[in-house]
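Sigma factor sigB regulation protein rsbQ: structure tokens wanted.
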Amino acid sequence: MNEVVVRNNVKVIGDGERTLMLAHGFGCDQSMWKYILPAFEPHYRIVLFDYVGSGRSELSAYTSERYSSLDGYVQDVLDIMEALQLQDVIFIGHSVSSMIGMLASIQRPDYFEQLIMIGPSARYLNGDGYVGGFDKSDVTELLAMMEMNFAGWASFLAPIAMNNPELPKLTKELERSFISTDPAITREFAEVTFFSDCRNELSRVTVPVLIMQCSDDSIVPIAAGEYLHKHLHNSTFRLMEAKGHYPHISHPEETITIIQEYLK
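Answer:
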């Protein structure tokens, strides 16, 4: 148990009967939840963690082999749940973590009560009439940029992803988060994220799902959220007023309200 807790920098806070597990997205870590935590801490037991390769996880535990697909990250989630003996978890995943949590729930539905997806996407690439938001050439260019100039990539992507120019402090915070990660690991995580395709798994999900879609998200188009809603049979779709890809950072009040309403 202890080695998983250390490996994934697991923190357990809050005093409640029900358990929330918060899973950060690509290029981030558990600190990204700080703006919404105070609303939930008094009422829930909250499990925070960093994926191996992110935040203050043990970088030495990272292998390209294990994390060459989303399965390695799914295993991180299941390892933590087993180590803490969690059950009936309300899993809140941001971005790619929505799919990681979903895949984990397919393997072990007994661990999960509900899935809450913030800015989820079953596939980031366009193709076969599907709108994912990116052409393959866009992603190839992004990956090349990460290799050539990691700091430049971070300062390029952060304002696009945050998409709240009136809040420059938050864009800077995101850029710092990107830049603090290991460049080689982050590039591999980006590749795994942007080339993942979970569409064939959607019919296997048995846990109720809340899909939270931002109104103007430069990473995930509204069509991607609507696609998920159509193909996840027990899902609720909420289109947010929030813009950008990080509503839990830029619009914490709206994010908190929607989650609280769903959990009631």
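The chain has a mean pLDDT of 96. The two ends are 32 Å apart (CA to CA).

Cheers.
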